[in-house]
Amino acid sequence: MNTIRVPHGPRKRVLVVDDSALVRQMLTEVLGRDPGLVVVGAAPDPYVAREMIKRLEPDVVTLDVEMPRMDGLTFLDNLMRLHPLPVVMVSSLTEAGAEATLDALELGAVDYVAKPKSAVAHGIEAYADELRAKVRAAAGARPQRRRAATTVRPAATALGYRTTDRLIAIGASAGGTEAIRVVLQNMPADAPAIVVTQHIPATFSRAFAERMDRSTAMSVCEAADGQQIVPGHCYIAPGDRHLVIERSGARWCCRLSDAAPEHHHRPSVDVMFRSVAQNVGRNAVAAILTGMGEDGARGLLQLCDAGVPTVAQNEATSVVWGMPGAAVRMGAVREVLPLDRIAGWLLQAAGAKPADAPAASTRAGIGR
Q: Under a CB-based contact definition with an 8 Å cutoff, are residues 289 and 181 in contact?
């Protein structure tokens, strides 16, 4: 257990929790190089971490998934119910790690980074910038106290919608896996087709798509190259592939691209939004949800300029108001809404006539 006495100040205070002494050392050294961060302690397990949180009052916690005495998910669940703090998960990029990380995001973690390759001297440096950026962003997040909730799969006729030739495009990053789940849970089985780009590693995207498929009345899948886009289905960009929407005769189809990352991301929201603007045009409706950085903002502006209805998640309900905030500042957004109202707005903008229409939407710039 390492404790560093640091006075409170403008630098964000970080607590590292990991059972590996080497990983604790690596994370501490890398985060300590950021002038905006200071590591105030390093704990080998959740029991020690619990006491250090009380004494050191960190702004953000990095948390390992697999630890002795108490696993990271159990600790995270307790933390978010009793003393919510921004948490960045440190997890292995494997199928098992993907499921555990998605569980952590559902429990309230802000974001995740890959487990550093401790056997390779330069392993931590390969993603040091990403690690520091995610911890900085998480430190400014506003986690909510978690309460037990019952998830109800929506009925197929939830909004009484009948399909039209429309396409809904959604982009997100940090905090987006849960934001997307909330939107999809409020979609009926016969909703317009939805395409989604979420910043996610290749080993996570299939597990994420399968999890979303279990959470909504729509059929959700990881997009495949050449796959036809049809109503009632949602297509999620695979990790490390751009999702591009092309017209194929009278319909649209998914195309996957290995082009260079944009804004350091592949898949990139901007890439998908641009393709929607070019090939779907006014038949589209678009939303930008919680996320770090500016990816998607310029693509959303192109959609807005083409006459496409656009909406951004508001600041109060966003884990990180980077991407939606950038879109608002660029004038790319017609509406700014809390997360729980976005699905209804998208359906109405796509021509839906729901049985229970949502209240009048908040104009951009209000209610953030």
A: no
**Model confidence over 193-204: pLDDT tens digits?**
999 999 999 999
Domains of the chain with CATH codes: 2-139 (3.40.50.2300), 167-349 (3.40.50.180)
User: pTM higher than 0.85 for the full model?
Assistant: no
DSSP state of 34: S
Q: Strand 284-288 and strand 167-172: pairing?
A: parallel
Residues with active-site annotation: 173, 199, 295
Give CA–CA dist 174/319, Å, rounded.
Answer: 7
Compute the distance between CA of residue 299 and CA of residue 304 in angstroms, rounded to an integer.
Answer: 9
CA 329, CA 297: separation in Å to the nearest integer? 9
Q: Above pLDDT 90, what percent of the chain?
A: 73
pLDDT bucket at 117, cuts 50 / 70 / 90: low
Decide if 61 contacts 25 (C-beta within 8 A).
Answer: no
